[in-house]
Specification:
five-stranded mixed sheet, about 650 residues, binds nicotinamide-adenine-dinucleotide, six-stranded parallel sheet
Length: about 650
């Protein structure tokens, strides 16, 4: 079980095409009347449109947004804000515009509406990075999260293709590092993987056709999820490096993320194997770091720090700065390790994961095998086999199953089959102890709440048990506490089912079924009875006790290898058949009996745990008993066909 803390950052999000038109309503919604619009010259057109849409709600525009939020720009914008007497902020642009909005919100407490036009993701994070005197510092506060985010896919259509690629990879970097963050949790994992999937599929489509609105929508939604990851869990070495390279060497933000990401992934690959497998799956590649590098190269993105203008001589200082203070990262961060990473990134080398060879891509082989079933005359057969093969191949690949392990598995199954015969069904036992029988049983038979739950058949049923009259003792004198069973069979509305065929079977006082005891003379502790007009039947037996399932074969070997006990909770088996009704196979468990919460075959269900009450004195049918006896009364409700 995974325990975790998840902190959500509430924001109102509008997502769609043309949502910019909602700006006036959103300003009104915040109860504000003087919006200060922050943007860049590149976004003059949407900013002018926003101002015109806002009409009297627009207090003025500041178009001097700069990357990495320099404090002098913030101070200048703050001056204008005060002059204009603005009471809310509307940022239109990428992470830089959003960043200025946050910097102003931090200084004034004004609410911000963010209209993101890149894939930076900053609009859903509580983080603000600011640069002063050549150094970038970050702070985080829930108050910095924009109150409203207006995602207008149409505004991203003009984002140049090269910037779309780097911005999209910047978003993926948030998702990648979220998957191995110390605070990683299943909610954020889900966001991260979906974000990687969406962006990896959308970016090539945007490169092919930059006005593909569907691809733009997927990329923007992926960026939103990635930003949510960034805002929820801590980032590692990759973000630290980009922070240093941007803040201290003035490298462009998204481009730097794009170059560094595959190398940071390769650095962490051996220490975050599971995350890398999941990222590789989401990317649709066999290996995550090289898959990311290949995607970037295919998209035409930058692949070297040299091409971003970093001098080779600066690498040592960058490595020093990135390792000056400790921070969480899956693989310990050392100056030498980071320098080697940076040297690779500077040259633009395709990374080699620092671990074992990347996993070969088995998908074509899997697809080939699955396709071979496509023409099965019975489509259900084709589907079942295809799905089985997919799961089996994935199981082998995910666990890197070795040849020796697979041969062991084959030998295990061979021995399981060899043990099967008229009195031993090791395969049913295997299915039972793996819980598969219970899953099939639940899905097939337990879908109606007003009928008695079913339970697994087990390996000891024998067809055609001896037919006996009511009141018979099916224990035929075997030792044990006598048990009087008073059973009724009805439909879901309690109407008696006359003439139902009820097979009952159980183990003896030592926990053995008759088929396990070849010296016994004929069937014992198993019988067939028929219900009367009241749906009733009665018989004597003995109180069932817990017993171990056979553990001298492969199933026992599996139980020992996993530290499991072989015991079944005490129970009686029933199979009820009646014309016009569905067959019910089930068991009644002795309330208070042993192993009810750890039954070896996972067969116990709460509704099937019933009192087997101790009694003394006269018996219901006058049978003379010396000492204690027990009684169980139960009404089975069976489902009409
Ligand atoms: P950006 O906002 O600096 O934009 C880059 C350039 O693209 C600018 O010239 C801008 O005018 C232009 N542009 C943006 N959208 C456009 C569009 N739709 N059409 C045409 N041109 C467009 O770049 P960015 O990568 O979005 O943001 C980078 C900044 O955001 C950095 O300062 C980074 O630190 C910060 N950031 C912060 C967080 C956070 O959570 N605090 C997260 C991510 C990024």
């Amino acid at each position: 079980m995974r325990s975790f803390v998840y902190t959500a950052h509430p924001a109102r999000v509008l997502f769609g095409a043309g949502t910019l038109a909602e700006l006036p309503a959103e300003v009104n919604r915040l109860g504000r009347t003087r919006a200060f619009v922050l943007t860049t010259p590149e976004l003059a057109e949407p900013a002018a449109r926003a101002t015109s849409l806002l009409g009297p709600l627009a207090a003025g525009v500041f178009d001097g947004v700069a990357m990495h939020t320099p404090v002098e720009v913030t101070e200048s914008a703050l001056g204008s804000l005060r002059e204009l007497d603005a009471d809310c902020l509307v940022s239109i642009g990428g992470g830089s515009a959003t960043g200025l909005g946050k910097a102003l919100a931090a200084r004034t407490g004004l609410p911000q509406i963010a209209v993101p036009t890149t894939y930076a993701g900053s609009e859903v994070t509580p983080v603000l990075g600011e640069t002063a005197a050549g150094a970038k510092t970050t702070r985080s506060s829930p108050d910095l999260v924009p109150r409203t985010v207006v995602y207008d896919v149409e505004l991203t259509v003009g984002l140049p293709v090269a910037l779309s690629v780097t911005s999209g990879i910047n978003a993926m970097a948030h998702a990648v590092e979220a998957l191995y963050a110390p605070q990683a949790n299943p909610i954020i994992d889900g966001y991260a993987l979906q974000s990687i999937r969406w962006l990896a599929a959308a970016l090539p489509r945007i490169v092919a056709r930059s006005d593909d609105l569907d691809a733009r929508a997927d990329a923007l939604a992926g960026a939103w999820l990635a930003g949510t990851c960034l805002g929820s869990v801590g980032m590692g070495l990759h973000h630290k490096l980009c922070h240093v390279l941007g803040g201290s060497f003035d490298l462009p933000h998204a481009e730097t993320h794009t170059v560094v990401l595959p190398h940071a992934m390769a650095f962490n690959a051996t220490a975050a194997r599971d995350a890398m497998h999941r990222i590789a799956d989401a990317l649709g590649t066999p290996d995550a770091p090289t898959g990311m590098y290949d995607l970037i190269a295919q998209l035409g993105g930058p692949t070297s720090l040299a091409e971003l203008g970093l001098a080779e001589a600066e690498l040592g200082r960058a490595a020093e700065l990135a390792t000056a203070t400790p921070y969480p990262n899956p693989r310990p961060v050392t100056a030498d390790g980071v320098l080697a990473l940076l040297a690779d990134a500077w040259q633009g080398n395709r990374p080699t994961p620092c671990g074992p060879q990347p996993r070969p891509d088995i998908r074509p082989l899997t697809d080939q095998v699955v396709a071979s079933f496509a023409k099965a005359p019975d489509p259900r057969v084709g589907r079942l086999l295809g799905d089985l093969v997919r799961h089996l191949h994935e199981f082998v690949a995910d666990n890197d199953v070795t040849e020796a392990e697979w041969l062991f598995a084959i030998d295990f199954l061979t021995r399981t089959g060899q043990l099967c015969g008229p009195s031993r069904q090791e395969f049913i036992l295997l299915s039972d102890t793996l819980g598969v029988s219970s899953v099939v049983d639940v899905l097939t038979n337990s879908r109606s709440p007003d009928t008695t739950p079913s339970a697994v058949l087990g390996p000891f049923y024998v067809d055609g048990p001896p037919v006996v009259p009511h009141g018979s003792d099916i224990a035929r004198g075997l030792p044990g506490t006598p048990l009087w069973a008073d059973i009724r069979v009805t439909d879901p509305d309690w109407r008696p089912v006359d003439g139902a065929v009820v097979d009952v079977w159980q183990s003896n006082d030592d926990g053995f079924y008759d088929v396990q005891l070849p010296d016994l003379d004929g069937p014992v502790l198993r019988a067939r009875l028929h219900t009367d007009a009241d749906g009733a039947l009665r018989f004597w037996s003995i109180l069932p006790s817990e017993y171990p399932i056979p553990s001298d074969g492969p199933v026992g070997q599996m139980l020992r290898a996993t530290g499991r006990h072989p015991y079944r909770a005490p129970h009686l088996h029933f199979m009820i058949m009646a014309t016009g009704y569905r067959r019910l196979v089930t068991q009644l468990f002795v309330a208070g009996g042993a192993y009810l919460d750890s039954d070896a075959v996972f067969g116990v269900k709460d509704d099937l745990i019933v009192p087997f009450e101790r009694a003394t004195g006269p018996t219901p049918d006058g049978r003379e008993i010396d000492g204690d006896w027990c009684r169980v009364e139960f009404t089975f409700h069976i489902a009409p066909e």
